[in-house]
Amino acid sequence: MSQAFDLSGKVAIVTGGNGGIGLGMATGLAQAGAALLIAGRNAAKNVAAVKALEALGAKASAVQADVTDQAACRMLIEATQTTYGRLDILVNNAGTNIRKQPQEYTLDEWKSVLDTNLTSAFLCSQAAYPAMLTAGGGKIINIGSMLSIFGAAFAGPYGASKGGMVQLTKSLACAWAKDNIQVNAVLPGWIDTDLTRRARQDVPGLHERVLARTPAGRWGEPGDFAGIAVFLASSAADFVTGAAIAVDGGYSSQG
User: Fold this and answer.
1) How far apart are CA 27 and CA 29, in angstroms?
2) Percent of the chain with pLDDT over 90
């Protein structure tokens, strides 16, 4: 592997890293040599993810954490430093969705989606900042969405959270560039995960529309995110910050 993409000796946290896009990214980071701490609410999925990463030869552990809670985010950073002695990379991937028409959401549902998708990224980044200063710099990768760009009638809170994720990314990038911390966003297209499988059940015709709109002619896979994770986490991306990069098979490029 090119030295620019070598993550040996680096330590990464991936929130929501026990499945889907998060595990796809964690796998890429592990293959590049990083040690991993997975944060997720489902203990059984955490155990399975750690076993999969260890099977690749990586150091891996997991913490059951609710990243909408500020104290839990701070505990997560402390656990990483206790286990591995440092923190270099943070992937803010935790996410959820509730599909309804705008007029049908309760306030608690709105808050649940915003807190899980956006507030958690702010809290984890804020908690990680001192550790990255100590390490001499760091990389933060925030997971947005095609709904950072487009609107969807059934995803008001989700779209608001993912649009906010791009603007949070830019703000953190501007604030922390002086500290050698690069902050970027990845915007997944339609990816075959548990979340989108439910969407295909809830939204008639979605599968066919996605295939018709995507030049690559397929749904994405979690493994499609290994490369972008390694790039943005590595020294190859030292002059890349504040960017929002689509990983969508061309979906957002086609009218």
Assistant:
1) 5
2) 92
